[in-house]
Amino acid sequence: MSPAATSPPVACTVCGARYEHERLVVSCICGGLLELAPPAPLTSEHVDTLETGPWRYAAALPRVPAAGRVRLGEARTPLVPVRIDGADALLKAEYALPTGSYKDRGSAVVVSLLHHVGVTEVMDDSSGNAGASLAAYAAAAGMRCVVYVPASNSSGKLAQIRGYGAELRPIGGDRAAAMRDAAAADGAPFYASHNRMPAFIAGVSTLGFELWEDLGHAAPAVVVVPAGHGSLVLALAHAFRALRSGGSIDRLPRLIAVQAQTRSALSAAWSSGRDEVTALDHGPTIAEGVAAVRPLYGGQLLRAIRESHGDVLTVTEHEIAAALRDLGRLGHYVEPTSAVAVAGFRRLAGSNTATNDTVVVLTGSGLKSAWPDAEMGEMFSG
């Protein structure tokens, strides 16, 4: 491995102020949100071939000594070819990560960074997967962890968070209510927000680098992901920019963000050609991972999708349930949020805009998405 590329700094989306990851800021002194600055180039020479999981791409991550990295046995996730409605797709099975979701990529990096600089207590707000992931890595690091979640979310995810020894704070109300309560907590542990810490996005960006290696150092034509607050979209855009900057790929893959029709603020902004996203709530969705009423980084999401010549699609609850059922019959027992992406792929296939190297990201396992027996029976009937 050649000398590492410089760890990308963090930039304020409002005033442009720059920070190092080690500063551990979750918002700028001006109050603005933080994002990863344009990435340093990444080539095959920057890949640590002795590593697996996120740290294989340590050259593109915050600086943490190898001995200080918190690990739970992360490995490359499977890329599985399938046919859906007569169209070829590649399913990236992120549910194979240690806690059952892609959030482990971000948590592995964030917790390692926090542990390295001496943080001993962390908290976050979550719809479930991020909270479980943070709780697991915090447990591995010997850190106290507090997680704010909507009380109505999947009981399996809440049980998983408790199982790692974290303190669960169920909140009456929706996802936004959990975020508000966590942000307002006085005297709380360090707010390791997966939606606000750029180090988390850096960790998730390793999914893009891994796809590039999966495909023989080539970019997929299209990547389809579910989108709530949009961490996957931002992370993949960051990774593919780094690869293009280094000459490792010659084009950006088209990023297709898929939303539940009832929570489709990003889609509404996209369709109307706006540069910012306003709140939109047409009711609940079974895909709790994309239940955000208004993405925090709406403007950045729109720019990333436009830069890639991508698209934003919406799918109905019926389409999500059908995709969930059909994924199970292909051998993939996933959560409804994963099915959102597959339902979106079906829209692409129906419009003949899917290609043979279209990747669909399966974000999380179905083993922790508990549904009442009657509802499951109806969902999987037919």
UniProtKB/TrEMBL annotation:
SUPFAM superfamilies recorded: Tryptophan synthase beta subunit-like PLP-dependent enzymes
Domain Tryptophan synthase beta chain-like PALP: 71-364
GO biological process: isoleucine biosynthetic process; L-serine catabolic process; L-threonine catabolic process
Cofactor: pyridoxal 5'-phosphate
Organism name: Jiangella asiatica
Keyword vocabulary terms for this entry: Lyase, Pyridoxal phosphate
Superkingdom: Bacteria
Sample GO molecular function, one term: L-serine ammonia-lyase activity
Keyword Repeat among UniProt keywords: no
Protein name: Pyridoxal-phosphate dependent enzyme
InterPro entries linked: Ser/Thr_Dehydratase, TrpB-like_PALP, TrpB-like_PALP_sf
Pfam families assigned: PALP
PANTHER family the record matches: L-THREONINE DEHYDRATASE CATABOLIC TDCB, THREONINE DEHYDRATASE, MITOCHONDRIAL-RELATED
